User: Fold these one by one.
Assistant:
Number 1:
Amino acid sequence: MLMLLASQRINVSACNFTGALPAAWRSEELQLLDLSDNRLTGLLPSAWGEKTTLPSLGQLYLTGNDIRGEPAGTPAGGCAGGSAARPRMEPLWRPPSAC
């Protein structure tokens, strides 16, 4: 499992990252992860919704990528989704407690 840096906020938007999101990321402290406006593809790893993987994650920004799905624990019709008309920093997903 890859441990992310001990940071509360990571913003790597518009960095031309490509490929799929790794399922093995883990961080106890990470609260905000902005991966928007890259060229990421594939499914959102279901492990990202588990309390043991990213327990403090409250904001995840994925707009401008081709990422599909919702992490485990997201309520049906919950906070996921988005429209191109919404602001760039509108989260694709928030944990159920933030809905």
Number 2:
Amino acid sequence: MSNPNPQNQFKKGQSGNPKGAPKRDWTWSNLLHGAAEEMGKTGEPMKTIIAQRLVLEAGRGNMQAVKQLMDRMDGSPQAFNDLTSGGEKLDLTSGLTPKQQKNIAAGIADAVKDNLK
């Protein structure tokens, strides 16, 4: 609902919510860090036990564990979405006659229909 009183409108250069969201006294990150620091039954921190288990599972051939281990050690592979155009929009139909474009579209439509059967 708009406020007809210009004195109560937002001031130029001032945030609409200067105090921000209220701070929580907990975060998932803090809870997980705390739990990882707790001692396990062996007297080692849980984070050490978890790391050892991850390595053990990877050694047994658990591919999810292998992926996690590799991602944690080397970082996740970087995703590349644009390999050729340098960010420019590609015109895939340049140099094609309208008849060639129509034939390509018909071929794609036939292939889709065949895969839906």
